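Please check our next protein.
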Amino acid sequence: MFAPDHIVRCFVGNLTTRPRTFVLLGLLYPPRDIVENHHEEPFSL
């Protein structure tokens, strides 16, 4: 699954009843050149 031409990103979340426990919700496996060429901040306004 890990290859030098891809980057693995994990989406995690937590539960209200257990705020310090995180659950893996999903994986994103985009090509490295797409991620490295995208410089916008993910949460910028």
Q: What stands out?
A: The mean pLDDT is 78. The two ends are 33 Å apart (CA to CA). The chain is about 10% helix and 30% strand. The CA atoms of residues 10 and 27 lie 5 Å apart.
